[in-house]
Write a structure and sequence with these properties.
Blueprint lengths: L1 H35 L5 H15 L5 H8 L9 H21 L5 H17 L6 H33 L5 H41 L11 H17 L2 H10 L5 H21 L5 H15 L7 H29 L3 H22 L29 H9 L17 H10 L3 H14 L5
Helix pairs in contact: 1-2, 1-4, 1-7, 1-8, 1-9, 1-11, 2-7, 2-8, 3-7, 4-5, 4-12, 4-13, 5-12, 6-10, 6-11, 7-8, 7-10, 10-11, 12-13, 14-16, 15-16
Keywords: Membrane, Phosphate transport, Transmembrane, Transmembrane helix, Transport
Protein name: Phosphate transporter
InterPro entries: Phos_transporter
């Protein structure tokens, strides 16, 4: 009994750690566009989001019920299975955070839970119908619905404000964007904090503390809300950068349309108990807003990597969860080994992230470590581009004169630079300087 009590405590702590990673992993959902458009300063944005995530945790328990009594059959479920599931979810969250990919924390949790349960009790332990109707179908439909809604909302917004003063409307949309970002944060707390509540409630049921079908106790609701709020305040800056600048460049009207569409979809799904991915909804809305503006573009290379991460989340977290469960089934030494691997893996990922840190001071920079880049997807000029730029003549026309009568080398170089990208211009100037005859 003492061993079960200790294990249950470990599972509860691990669940709160997952909730913490969920917070900083998904901060971008609410605040990436608000930060990228300059509506709020980075630290102010994450502080506001943290408070509203905490408030949202108290609004509903429908999603928690779906997890604690829907996806996995409770009969015969052991506490160590839940521990193994959380290991898979946490490691996948940290890995995708390191890569700056806005993958789904929800699907990481579901994947880990399904993989661990199958390893422990076989496929019969999984309620396939619930997985399809409340996990897979929303995963496909929600980002599409949010994306289409954001596209239409963006076009309508620009049409309505086409004759208005741009500066005045920009201020108004920034204010609206702050309000809609707060709504997304509230919705995120309502949906995602409940997933941890559901996991802890499921652990308490398997440990015999609660009866099957019981609602989460108040202390579970409070602890889950605080954990996700603290993680949100930490700020998942790497993913905020991808969402805010990596997918598309957003103006305040687009940010307002994207966040309003995402918040509506998340709140509606939470009300009916759909445990959808807020990350997928918000990413779909951001891409829809990017396509909704005339001349707007989506960086499909970034989007493709994100789609791949979405597809890999369930199976990858499931495999890690199954491997962790294979260890935990061995007894105390297996549980201790699994805990050590979780701590060690997390430490390695953290140390790798320090090689190229992203925080509130550089999250809106065009390109980390690439001087002269002009966008999130900017790349250094290639050899051919640099060579062509170096021999490109200045624009046709009369030669400018200086006070001494003729244009200097620096004047010509400046004319050339005006026709080149920043990276190519720098290379062209260097080549020109090297080609200049030496003064005797």
């Amino acid at each position: 009994m003492e061993h079960i009590t200790l294990l249950l405590g470990i599972v509860i702590v691990t669940a709160l750690v997952f909730d913490f990673t969920n917070g900083f992993h998904d901060t971008a959902n609410a605040m990436a566009t608000t930060i990228s458009t300059g509506a709020l300063k980075p630290k102010t944005a994450v502080a506001m989001s943290a408070v509203l995530n905490l408030v949202g945790a108290f609004l509903s328990v429908e999603v928690a019920k779906t997890i604690s009594g829907g996806i996995i059959n409770e009969d015969g479920l052991k506490t160590e299975v839940i521990f193994a599931a959380l290991v898979g979810a946490i490691l996948w969250n940290l890995l995708t955070w390191l890569l700056g990919l806005p993958s789904s924390s929800s699907h990481a949790l579901f994947g880990g839970l399904i993989g661990a349960a199958v390893m422990s009790m076989g496929w019969s332990s999984v309620n396939g119908g619930t997985v399809v109707t409340k996990v897979l179908l929303p995963a496909v439909a929600a980002p599409l619905v949010a994306g289409i809604a954001a596209t239409l909302a963006t076009r309508l917004t620009y049409k309505i404000s086409s004759r208005a003063d741009e500066k005045a409307t920009s201020k108004g949309y920034r204010a609206g964007q702050i309000a809609s970002a707060g709504l997304v944060s509230l919705a995120h707390g309502t949906n995602d904090a409940q997933k941890t509540m559901g996991i802890i409630t499921l652990a308490l049921i398997t440990g015999g503390v609660l009866n099957p079908g019981a609602n989460p106790p108040m202390w579970v609701i409070v602890s889950a809300g605080v954990a996700i709020a603290l993680g949100t305040y930490l700020g998942g800056w790497r993913i905020i950068r991808t969402m805010g600048k990596g997918l598309t460049e957003l103006a305040p009207p687009q940010g307002f349309a994207a966040q309003t569409s995402a918040a509506t979809a998340i709140l509606a799904s939470s009300h009916i108990g759909f445990s959808l991915s807020t990350t997928q909804v918000c990413s779909g809305a951001v891409m829809g807003a990017g396509l909704g503006r005339k001349g707007g573009v989506v960086r499909w290379s970034t989007a493709t990597r994100m789609f791949v991460a979405w597809g890999l989340t369930l199976p990858a977290a499931g495999l890690v969860g199954a491997g962790a469960e294979l260890l935990t089934k061995q007894g105390t030494w297996g549980i201790a080994t699994t805990a050590a691997l979780l701590i060690g893996g997390s430490a390695v990922i953290w140390s790798l992230s320090r090689r190229q840190p992203v925080d509130h001071t550089n999250v809106t920079a065009d390109e980390i470590g690439t001087p002269g880049a002009t966008g999130a997807d900017a790349e250094p000029a290639g050899v051919v581009t640099t060579a062509i730029a170096a021999v490109t003549p200045p624009p046709a026309g009369p030669v400018a004169t200086t006070a001494e009568g003729t244009a200097t080398d620096s004047d010509v170089a400046a004319d050339v630079q005006m026709t080149l990208s920043p990276a190519s211009a720098a290379s062209a100037t260097a080549v020109a300087d090297s080609a200049r005859p030496a003064t005797v």
